[in-house]
Amino acid sequence: MDLLPIWLTLKLAAITTAILLVIGVPLAWWLSAKRSVFKIIIEALITMPLVLPPSVLGFYLLLAFSPQNGLSKWLHNTFDVQLVFSFPGLVLASVIYSLPFMVSPVKSALQQLPVSLAQASYTLGKNPRETFLHVQLPNIKPSLLTATVLTFAHTLGEFGVVLMIGGNIPGVTRVASIAVYDAVEQMDYTSANQYSLVLFAITFIMVMGVFIYNKYQFKSPLE
Amino acid sequence: MDLLPIWLTLKLAAITTAILLVIGVPLAWWLSAKRSVFKIIIEALITMPLVLPPSVLGFYLLLAFSPQNGLSKWLHNTFDVQLVFSFPGLVLASVIYSLPFMVSPVKSALQQLPVSLAQASYTLGKNPRETFLHVQLPNIKPSLLTATVLTFAHTLGEFGVVLMIGGNIPGVTRVASIAVYDAVEQMDYTSANQYSLVLFAITFIMVMGVFIYNKYQFKSPLE
Amino acid sequence: QTLKVAIAANLQPVMKALQSDFKKKTGITIDAISGSSGNLSNQIKNGAPYDIFMSADAAFPTMLYKQGFSQHQPVFYADGVLVICGINKTAVNNWPSAIQTVAVKKIAIGNPAIAPYGKVAKEALEKLNLFIKVQPKIVFGESISQVNTYITTGAVDAGFTTLSLIRDPSNKTKLNWALVDSKLYTPIRQAMILLRRAEGNKQAIRFYKYLTSSAAKAIFKSYGYHVN
Amino acid sequence: MIKADIKKQLKDGQLLHINKAFVTGSITRVTGPSGAGKTTFLKMLAGLIKPDEGLISVDSNEWFNSAGSINLTPQLRKAGFVFQDYALFPNMTVMQHLKYACGDNDWIDDLLKIGGLDSFTDKKPLHLSGGQQQRLAILRALAIKPNVLLMDEPFSAIDVKTKMKLLADLQTLLRDMNTTVIAVTHNPQELDGIATDELIIGED
Amino acid sequence: MIKADIKKQLKDGQLLHINKAFVTGSITRVTGPSGAGKTTFLKMLAGLIKPDEGLISVDSNEWFNSAGSINLTPQLRKAGFVFQDYALFPNMTVMQHLKYACGDNDWIDDLLKIGGLDSFTDKKPLHLSGGQQQRLAILRALAIKPNVLLMDEPFSAIDVKTKMKLLADLQTLLRDMNTTVIAVTHNPQELDGIATDELIIGED
Ligand SMILES: Nc1ncnc2c1ncn2[C@@H]1O[C@H](COP(=O)(O)OP(=O)(O)OP(=O)(O)O)[C@@H](O)[C@H]1O
Ligand SMILES: Nc1ncnc2c1ncn2[C@@H]1O[C@H](COP(=O)(O)OP(=O)(O)OP(=O)(O)O)[C@@H](O)[C@H]1O
Ligand code: MOO
Ligand SMILES: [Mg+2]
Ligand SMILES: [Mg+2]
């Protein structure tokens, strides 16, 4: 078994998760506060990758990333960044694809905190940012962990989008899910089975780990 | 645009959702009650399709569904049911694939009900089944609706598994997500775009609908 | 950076031999990316970073050439051979009548729109006036590779594929097969092009030339392809 | 006569040990600091929490006996229970609450009058004030005509005037039914002149 | 002197109208039935809920004025607030709560002694009894040395003995700081002899 696709997948998942922690958590915070119709539309858009066929997402990304496209052309000429059939492109696609896995659980956890927690912090003179960092975020740690692990695992499992905009290039876009597909197509069922088992083992252990941790952890009275 | 794939997809999603309501809701109830290590393992397994690459699931289903396989052969000989390249096969795959979308939200909603609700019902002499039907289920309606809509929408979006076990048969297994992929591969971007827009519109309207409903509905104090 | 060669799925078995032979001769490593000819063409159109595209027909490379993805006309490198193949004998012995029996439940062919081997399979069935009759049994593979998968897992009883599958020494599944009469389909004239980004890439040009060398021809031949 | 001699290791480490007999028809006031185990005690009587060891018997029936492995379900004990958080069913109207508990319409009408909820029969809990919610919780527990009525802070949300009227009515009713009442309260003056017995849990 | 003349349409349809002045250093007891709007009134004073119209002024500063579109944030008002549900931070120990609120270690030590929490400084709320949690909520509100102290049912979970001791200590402290106190309570006897003024909300 060629381990390159496994490493590539882990790298993709790690980078995607890191990016989503940075942009997804503040986004969740923004969404958790007073709702407006505009926010509901944004939230629905964020949820879309959860339900939209990967082939539809892949198709639009292919069009957007294609060098024929103005923005992609400009990116390519200016920064020498090509998005289609490239690792940066996969990262961007994965960020979009896994966004709801980070945003939704964090958002609902924030909404489930009693409002009086933030209010108490305000009456102590603390601004919303301090309140978020010192009061709200520390009290949704289990949800944050769950969101992080599921985001990571879900990115490991990304397939359809990569199939369309990745192109199965070894070491660049040939992630494990594609390697399984490729091995099956090459009738190399031994490799397909090995990749599958590795992926299954990694994701299963992660999911189990989170579940058991969430069961046995010091339970906050808020959940 | 050939509308057959759209109808087929809607049919698949409707049947899958109906089946999952019947098996997923009791399963969620069972999981929501006192937890054991065994239940955690079951729960992790149910969560797997959310994070496992569709190509892995597709690979194993291909092996399991192949008429060479003992069980499939028996099914075939006894009931004349063929699972590979058939609509029943897609239904079975979709049920597995969308299971976590039904079970997880219903389970957490049940767990978030105050335990005293069920206890109150018990002290009135009601058994767990009556309590579930008359007290617990009616009070998680919004979550049940969300789970149903997301299950339906997520089944609409199924791609990787169908790609591997469907065989792209018009009217049987050529669902909309496959039609998009197929059109893109044929460089027929007009059709790809039409299918994509239809799928995007359907799923977006459903997701928005649930979000708005959940916002404006009569809010139960329990959520 | 290694060379990236996009290959039509039917070439998968022979490519392994070509790669190792070329590596032995030149020390150059090649990454092969396989798919149906149409799928690969679509990827190239959208910017896939491939150096050479080896198609299963001439139409796709010609289209890419006309659209400016190459500065050179496509070049023929081999002619493919269509076979019908299955795990059980029943489906392939006297296949035109066998595939009409109830014993044959599913028949795999490549997607005619993107896989040239599927296109000729359909053509052969149509010539025999069988296509309409067996249509309910037909399943479409995304590429000839997927057809091969369906055959070797036993998911279908029979499938139309390339002779190189049979000649592939690494294929351990015991297969029953029969040639499809070459009069039933237009010759599968497989062509390749050197893509724009490989322009001036000495290694790419070297492999491109190697493919029409006698050494390569011998390998193609041993996998059942016709070369001249 | 209800006899309870039970032990329970509480989650916070304390050992709760209660040994007490309640005369049939008596009204016992249970007091004690927060977290002492008052709610836990009531729930053990109702069969909602299992004691670690001991014995609970009601007249000649054993409800719980760790030695004989007897542990009746809450359904079989059918103790009326007024929960500290009311535990009303958000999906049910006042009337549906009472109909869920019992089928006797005359009895339901009587209860609605006693609780002063007769003009709110089609309201769901969300649209009731805190005091009305609490009264509904009491009526629901009474709807099953329980022999034992366990009440956890049953009057905390009811203002003094309403409480006095309700208590007077309840007293007659409970005397008629000969119900044994065990009521937890934080306010030591509450139930003065009504309670006939007292249990203090966890006072050091 | 705190002056409030504010109106608020409550979610249940009632109109809450309060017009009252609170003398600096006074202790006002607020009573009234459940749901009348006591908590809402305190939150409007603290800037956590916006009144529909009216005026709130503290000495010569306007905190809220619907005519002049003035509405100070809670951060600027810095009213000490003891929440009905305590609103303790589950992630913080007793000490961290007080340090989050103020930087004066001597003051924190004083508070811990008054609240009898000096031996629990490294405990998180989950490991405190209800009464200890409530005392921590009071100490946290005092940590910012507020001019105005708003307390919502601050003694409901504290047993009588502890309450008496705490009240005595608080009284001295509040007098020293000249803090204006507004305290909601359900128990009409509570704060007898301590409260210097009274506000009844929503009694018909
Ligand atoms: N099923 C259980 N098993 C063991 N301990 C429990 C159980 N349920 C609750 N406890 C613990 O018992 C202790 C006492 O809780 P309980 O609710 O009985 O106190 P209480 O006297 O009713 O207090 P309050 O006046 O605040 O209502 C708490 O520490 C709680 O965590
Ligand atoms: N931000 C708000 N705007 C309008 N109405 C509100 C707001 N917050 C709460 N209410 C409503 O005001 C009413 C009074 O609630 P409040 O909590 O002030 O009562 P209370 O007097 O404190 O009762 P309790 O004694 O039960 O604590 C309730 O019907 C509540 O729904
Ligand atoms: O080799 Mo093909 O392009 O799949 O027929
Ligand atoms: Mg209690
Ligand atoms: Mg209040």
Automatic annotation (TrEMBL), chains A, B:
* Lineage: superkingdom: Bacteria
The cross-references to Gene3D superfamilies, in alphabetical order and at most eight, read: MetI-like
One Pfam short name: BPD_transp_1
* Purpose: Part of the binding-protein-dependent transport system for molybdenum; probably responsible for the translocation of the substrate across the membrane.
What protein is this chain from? Molybdenum transport system permease
Taking every annotated instance into account, which residue ranges of this chain make up the domain ABC transmembrane type-1? 6-210
- Cell location: Cell membrane
UniProtKB/TrEMBL annotation, chains D, E:
* This protein's UniProt keywords: ATP-binding, Nucleotide-binding, Transport
Transport: present as a keyword of the record?
A: yes
Query: Where does the record place the ABC transporter domain?
Result: 1-204
Q: Name one Pfam family in it.
A: ABC_tran
One Gene Ontology molecular-function label: ATP binding
InterPro entries from the UniProt entry: AAA+_ATPase, ABC_SmlMolc_Importer, ABC_transporter-like_ATP-bd, ABC_transporter-like_CS, P-loop_NTPase
Q: What is this protein called?
A: ATP-binding cassette domain-containing protein
